[in-house]
Amino acid sequence: MATTDPFSSLNSPQKRAATFGENLPEGKGVRAGPLLVVAGAGTGKTNTIAHRVAHLTMHGVDPARILLLTFTRRAATEMRRRSHDVLRQALDDTLGNKAQTMLQRLSWAGTFHSIGNRLLRHYGRHLKLEPGFTVVDRGDSADLFDNLRQELGYTEQYQRFPRKDTCLAIYSWRVNTQKTLHETLEQQFSWCLGWEQELGKLCRAYVERKQRYGLLDYDDLLLYWHAMMSEPRLAQQVGGNFDHVLVDFMEKLAASLPTGYSYEWTGTTYQQKQSQGNEGMVFGFAAVLVFLCLAALYESWSIPFAVILALPLGLFGALLGAYFRDYAYDIYTQIGIVTLIGLAAKNAILIVEFAKDSREQEQMSIRDAALHAAQVRLRPILMTSFAFILGVVPLVVATGASAASRRSLGTAVFGGMLAATLIAVFLVPVQYYVIETFVERRRRPAPSGGPAKIPGSGSGPKPGTAPEFAE
Known about the structure:
Blueprint: H1 12-18, E1 22-23, E2 30-31, H2 45-58, E3 66-70, H3 73-90, H4 97-103, E4 109-111, H5 112-123, E5 134-135, H6 138-151, H7 154-157, H8 164-177, H9 181-188, H10 196-213, E6 215-216, H11 218-230, H12 232-239, E7 244-247, H13 251-254, H14 267-275, H15 279-298, H16 303-308, H17 311-324, H18 331-362, H19 366-396, H20 403-443
Parallel strand pairs: 3-4, 3-7, 5-6
Antiparallel strand pairs: 1-2
């Protein structure tokens, strides 16, 4: 019996969503129609759905008849954990045994792909699909495309033929949007239009290879599930297994709502939407902050320029790495670039600071100080930089959950540090020499006697007369 209010932590809209519906008498369940809750990150969406699961369970709904769909395995695990905590609070279950027993039957909670996989193994025979199929992830699908590219000779015949990840993205976009290959290339991959025939042949070979070995990729799981639910008889059988279906919504689904529905963003998500496209301001502010810190450290406005001018090397390497791996310029790449502002400046600081000390303590010329600093600091720069670069390799080749975000972040940092290391050791001393030489010439005082006088120009003593000296 509930002894505390488990919904006291929710605000009014969240509580209405969590307790939506009519509670049937004698704890026989909850009668509720469709309910749409669209919310972005940081707005309490996951917490609301977890309370919804707890509310249904507390009022007699069998957890085994609740279908909970999310977009990540982490979200599904988090919802189960939060639902357990809410039930334990509501039942005053200190050890959590009762809540755990109730939620053990919440077996149909997972991602769209995992639930689709389970349903297809139950009902796949109706679609002439053998239940013993093998599911391949995005990495395996990309590798299969790579093998087919080599078998068809495209990698040797065309130097700039799309890479495996791009080929998979083209295929995935086409099958999910149900558009033709020409429309897909024209709208999303226009730079690949020149290989339309080759890509069509490659996609057909990919489908044939999957069918031959009984393979299903992530797109196939959703497509077969959609085909299964398009059959009224099968849809009725599947729907009969569940009393309540909870879906963790996302923006792309919200954008395709039926006529008469609308949505808007509020709170943290609204601020995120408003700040999109302002990454240039963030990069600029970070560079200015580094410059001001260096100016205060060296008590000079000129020396920090030799360091700041090394930052574009990191940016160049990060964008080049993302380009060669066909990664989008997403938030993870941008985070990597912001990180590189400090990492790329570190190598330049090692050279500039040593050159500055050499000039002040050993009275070296600008040229000798720059060369001496580059020679002495070369080994420490290479050792520390390559230790960091090798440490980033696991992110570059990451697999499993959230692999795409880790790869994007790792590629940006890896490429940026590689460029900043290999190029900076040669470019930074040159920058230091050029900037310090320019400043030195500007500081050089004019001769004490002033500019030379031209005889007969009208200034100075006349020829044949003795000059006058002030006493």
